[in-house]
Amino acid sequence: MNRTTLSFIAGVVALAAVTGFATLDTPDTRTTAEAAAELPVERTSLLCPAPSTSDIAETSYTSFTPVTKDASGEGKAELRAAGEESDGKSTGKKAAKPVLEPGEPGKPATGDTSGGDASALVGTAEGKFAPGWTVQETTEVAAGSGRGLQGVNCSAPDTEFWFTGASTAADRTDYVHLTNPDDSAAVVDIQLYGKDGALDSTLGEGITVAPHSSDPILLSTLTEEKQENLTLHVNVRSGRVGAAVQALDDKLGGDWLPAATDPSDRLVLPGIPKDATAVRLIAFAPGDDDADLTVRLASPSGQITPAGNETLHVKAGMTAAADLGDVTRGEAGSLVLTSSGGSVPVVAALRVVRGKGDDQETAFIPATRPIATRATVADNSAKGTTLALTAPTGAATVKVTASAGSEGGEPVTKTFTVKAGTTENVEAPTPTGLKGTYALTVERVSGGPVYGSRMLAATEEGVPGFTIQNLPDDRGTVSVPEADEDLSVLQK
Q1: How far apart are CA 27 and CA 29, in angstroms?
Q2: Could you tell me if 115 and 40 are in contact, meaning their C-beta atoms sit under 8 angstroms apart?
Q3: 3-state DSSP call for residue 488?
Q4: Which has the closest alpha carbon to 180: 56, 45, 362?
Q5: What angle do CA 430, 476, 260 make, to 5 degrees?
Q6: What are phi and psi of 12, to 5 degrees?
Q7: Is 29 helix (H, G, I), strand (E, B) or coil?
Q8: What pLDDT, on a 0 to 100 scale, did the predictor assign at position 480?
Q9: What pLDDT, on the 0 to 100 scale, is given for residue 461?
Q10: Which residues pair with residue 356 across a beta bridge?
Q11: How far is CA 60 from CA 151, 193, 194, in A?
């Protein structure tokens, strides 16, 4: 029973005491509802997977909360190792110091770790730190399987995840990281789908993830089949977890594969690098019907059809893949997929390769949801950051704000118009007098739906290390209906 209902009943009781009578007829009991108000969220949880098992890994964490109107004046945010609580209760020991504890909204806070022993992190933000809170985990690995730049946006716990682009091929080592932030155990089912349907495995059923813990599960231990392109479905029977796939390749580097957006008959995969040398589309149809996908590339000049890859047929319950080559041909691009011949929902992702020969590196772009209001991505630098925006159906105006730097600098804002059907690598602003790293916040001002991604690039010893993170809407506000008591229900 909510607070409005309680106050309403209290009013009825008070009137009855004064007048000596009142009638409360349940079917006619109602309130006069007004338009719902958009209010800032008051609590946000984020989970960061264990970054690497490499002894030479260098990992940085960057936390940022955009300044939000009407947000609470109080609150705090912190990241702690999984298994450690702020009061030390889970271990019975003295509470450990947080890995990262932001100071104020509007300014990034950073932390770092090195080696292969770093654990998963559990983060909580409250009050003014909660709306739009984002944490970026970035790891540099100089050599070995998965060498290069690996990045992931720490994500909220949930009960279902779809990943397309995983693999059990001989040169791939893929893990799915499951992190449980709660006080009770979570029970998880993992199902793999290949080119011929579901892969035989009983080891993925009923996996228990202990409270306040994280488990990396090697995909090749769940099945004996070696397949290049797989779809991974993580379904949580009880509890909730954070999930992310770490894809490590012996020759092509590696990166994190985030979960794709929910299955849909229209998907957008934004921000293919203009110098991509190989792009692979992986898709899966989770329902009972086949899907015929129309493939379009949103380029700077409009939408075009990739030669030789106009469509992709995806059989129900099976994973399909198509190699698109250097589909962008030196220009910014995003892929727009539409299920033709009926609204058959699919999930999809891109595997993107930059470089040639021994100097190749990999990143992933899953389908994402649009920036309805606002999205933020952290850990940007003065060089090596590329912001890609696409407006697939109608022109849109966006405002891009570069935050203060983590060690100094003043915010800067620019406004851009993205033409209908195009993708643009916009010249994102940088803070005045920048020191350290900064965050980019994209706000849709007007027009049609906008999708975005950010690429970080850093070349080490000739290897073009890079990582790509999508910019889905941060869902920093919630709709709260406003209601007035309607005392007419007391009259007969």
Answers
A1: 6
A2: no
A3: helix
A4: 45
A5: 85
A6: -65, -45
A7: coil
A8: 77
A9: 67
A10: 359
A11: 10, 33, 34
Could you give the angle at the alpha carbon of 169 between the alpha carbons of 199 and 207, nearest 5°?
45
d(CA 99, CA 83): 13
Residue 246: name the closest of 232, 260, 257, 235 by CA: 257
Distances in Å between the Cα of 190 and the Cα atoms of 140, 204, 270, 315, 348 are 29, 5, 27, 20, 18
C-alpha 415/C-alpha 196 separation (Å) is 47
Q: What is the pLDDT of residues 193-228, one digit of tens each?
A: 999 999 998 899 999 999 999 999 999 999 999 999
Contact (CB, 8 A) for 137 and 59: yes
Paired with 323 in beta bridges are 280
Phi, psi of 270 (to 5 degrees): -95, 145
d(CA 227, CA 289): 23
Evaluate whether 312 touches 281 at the Cβ level (below 8 Å).
Answer: yes
Question: Is residue 7 pLDDT above 60, yes or no?
Answer: no
Percent of the chain at pLDDT > 70 equals 87
- How far apart are the C-alpha atoms of 262 and 475, rounded to whole Å? 16
Q: Which residue has the higher pLDDT, 367 or 87?
A: 367
Q: Where are the beta strands (DSSP E) in 341-450?
A: 347-356, 359-366, 374-380, 385-391, 396-402, 408-410, 412-418, 422-426, 432-435, 438-447
Phi, psi of 129 (to 5 degrees): -90, -10
Residues constituting the chain = 492
CA–CA separation, 464 and 457 (whole Å)? 7
CB atoms near residue 173 (< 10 Å)? 20
C-alpha distances in Å from residue 104, one per residue of 71, 410, 476: 13, 14, 17
β-pairing, 77-81 vs 121-126, is antiparallel
Q: What is the DSSP letter of 10?
A: H
Q: Which residues of 3-42 are buried (b: 16+ CB within 10 A; e: fewer)?
A: eeeeebeeebeeeeeeeeebeeeeeeeeeeeeeeeeebbb
Which residue's structure tokens are 């609204």? 343
Which DSSP string corresponds to 299-362?
ETTEEEPPTT-SEEEE-BT-EEEEEEESTTTTS-EEEEEEEESS---BEEEEEEEEEETTEEEE
